[in-house]
Amino acid sequence: MGGNHQQLPAILGGTPVVTMDQEEANRWPLLTREDEQAVLEILRDGRLSIHPVIRELEEDYARFTGMDYALAHNNGTAALLAAFFALDLEPGDEILVPSATFWASVLPMLWVGAVPVFCESEPDRLGLDPADMEKKITDRTRAIVVVHLWGLPSRMTEIYKVAQKYNLKIIEDASHTHGAIWRDRPCGTLGDIGVFSLQGDKLAPAGEGGIFLCRDYDYYERAVLLGDITRIIELETPARRFAATSFGIKTRIAPMSAALARIQLKKLPEHNRRRNQNLIYLSEKLEPLGFHTFMAPSHIERVYFEYIIRFNPERIPLSLPVLLQALQAEGCQVSMPRYPLVHQQPFFTEGHFKSILRLPEDVPAPQYDSDTLHATMQGNQNLIKLPSFPNAEQELLDQYVAAFTRVIRHGDEIMNSSAVLEAGSESTPSAGEDKGG
Q1: pTM above threshold 0.90
Q2: What CATH code is carried by the domain that includes residue 163?
Q3: In angstroms, how far is the first alpha carbon of the chain from the final one?
Q4: Residue 425 and residue 322: Cα distance in Å, rounded?
């Protein structure tokens, strides 16, 4: 009897498989005395607003990516606003965007009068679908926002073809892909402008922060004019005349955040190596069980901001809510991903975006319908979020594999059991959770 009890899934009365403590395995960010010392040096120095460490961080990111210009911001959302402002868009200009992303990839453009045009995401990499992008292009389309969701670079070859054909600029939101490589080029350099978020959950965190990157001096100059009045005096163009006012906002990063960001960027390769080692190992074990784990093709070195997999209902005899319930009973920390589709949010469907967006009289306000982008909706339905295991030992990973294996093996029994209460078991992403930008 005892042996059978151990064989049964925990949801049917068995003993949970995952017994190891997971707090340390999933602790992030990983902070050491070196991080503490960097922040303490700023405190002891006393220059808490303007400090050379900000320029040092920008130089670090310029070297890290190979870009000509880097400008540090107080968060990734501000860096994205700077990117939209840098393009010198006209009110009513349209920008192609994904809906499967954090809101900050989209909403800042409204403040410069640009109109988001939501496009489908393709199922294999979860980035923009180039074919659907092309269908959405009009004579007002000016740019594309590319988001490498969860750390896997998008289909850039096809996206480039569309951009070149229609003379569109690319803003690359690389907030999930610090250290990822596409065809020997680092993410953050694949567009006309690249943006990183340094928010506390990111792969190179600073608590809060953002990096704006470009090769074109004009883009850099406009970003400076928008948000860093201390740099305007350094400009050697007529734009220097705005040194007393800037263009109205201040988005400079705080020195303590910049100091922390420098240390975390230095540690990024080792942190990515450890996380990738764990998640590639786990992916190779979960693929045969009926899960798509978004392994990268040979020309890509992906990273893992978060670990997302998709289950195949044709191979796994469980509904997603019951699967999550059964895995949680085994001790697995699993849930649904936390990004609700942006185009379905009341801000758009109820027209609240009009309180920000100002359009010329001859440009009609867009209408956003939640019942669109069916491919994206379908692709999002069967996704599962696991821990990213930045600090885990293999024994914990093996316990997760054993838990998944046990639940799948007993799938029919679980679905047919009266012990399973599907109602209320489905986890939903929190629209208010600030994890991006």
Answers
A1: yes
A2: 3.40.640.10
A3: 53
A4: 7
Q: How far is the CA of 151 from the CAs of 26, 77, 154, 211, 294, in angstroms?
A: 17, 18, 9, 17, 10
Phi, psi for residue 209 in degrees, rounded to 5:
165, 165
Return the structure tokens found at 103.
């809101």
The whole-number average pLDDT for the span 177-189 is 99
Token readout for 383 is 């996704």
Q: Is the dihedral of CA 125, 130, 136, 138 positive or negative?
A: positive
Question: Could you tell me how far CA 245 lies from the centroid of its own chain?
Answer: 33
Q: Whole-number mean pLDDT of the chain? A: 95
Centroid of chain to Cα 166: 27
Which of 88, 58, 79, 76 has its CA nearest to residue 169? 88
Distance in angstroms (rounded) separating the CA atoms of residues 407 and 312: 14
Residue 357 lies in a domain: no
Question: In the structure, what pLDDT confidence band is assigned to residue 125 with cuts at 50, 70 and 90?
Answer: very high
pLDDT band for 7, please (50, 70, 90 cuts).
Answer: confident
Which range marks the domain in which residue 41 is found?
Answer: 33-264
- Extract the tokens encoding 214: 């470009």
213: three-class secondary structure by DSSP: strand
User: Please, is 391 exposed, middle or buried when counting C-beta atoms within 10 Å of its C-beta (0-12, 13-18, 19+)?
Assistant: middle
